[in-house]
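Notes, p. 3: input format for complexes.
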Amino acid sequence: MPEPPTADPSQTIGEISTDEFMQIMLTNALSPMRVIEQFAAQVTAGGLIGVMSSGQGSIANNESGQRELYRGSKAALNMFMRSLAARPTMKARPLVTMAPGWIKTALGGPDAPYTIEETIPLLVNVLLEKQQRPGLEISRLSRQYGSLVMITPRATAPQPPTFGNRQHPAPAPPARWQAGRAVLRCPRR
Ligand SMILES: NC(=O)c1ccc[n+]([C@@H]2O[C@H](COP(=O)([O-])OP(=O)(O)OC[C@H]3O[C@@H](n4cnc5c(N)ncnc54)[C@H](OP(=O)(O)O)[C@@H]3O)[C@@H](O)[C@H]2O)c1
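Output follows (189 residues plus NAP):
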């Protein structure tokens, strides 16, 4: 889970207390992976496992900075999911990390452009569509296309993105998506 809404987004990583660092990393990065490892055996062999990440966990897209601890915790979660996906026991399993965009919640605040009600169906569609595709994929909310797009990590076979919202056919994706190296930006705060 994220930083408290009252946290100062300009606080640098060096200014953060060790206790807060441990709490956020424990909650956002370690705990989801512990849950997965404890419960993976309860999921059928080809069953889907997904985690909620954030666009702010993207290393490539971080040009604006801010929220350094939150970003670091989500980047760590993303890396742990890549490591999970690389395990031989996980090769046949669909895995997904989701970045929902900027949502009106206690964390996102009232200025966020998207509501929970319009975002949850998109997330459910991502999970449903991902069920039959083994390997790790990353979904991000695209403001431009108004839907969740699935991005295939470069390590696996390039595929065109899958649009989560079937009710709104999306335009042809930019060429760079077809190369499996999409760079999408989540809404800035
Ligand atoms: N909102 C956004 O703009 C946004 C953007 C990108 C990613 N995300 C991600 O989406 C997920 C949900 O965030 P949100 O915006 O929905 O935040 P939220 O409204 O504050 O909801 C957080 C949820 O997590 C629970 N929770 C909080 N701290 C916890 C803890 N230490 N242990 C167990 N559960 C805890 C809360 O439970 P209680 O209700 O019982 O307090 C609540 O159900 C997070 O992983 C967040 O990083 C959100």
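Confidence is low (pLDDT under 50) at residues 154-189.
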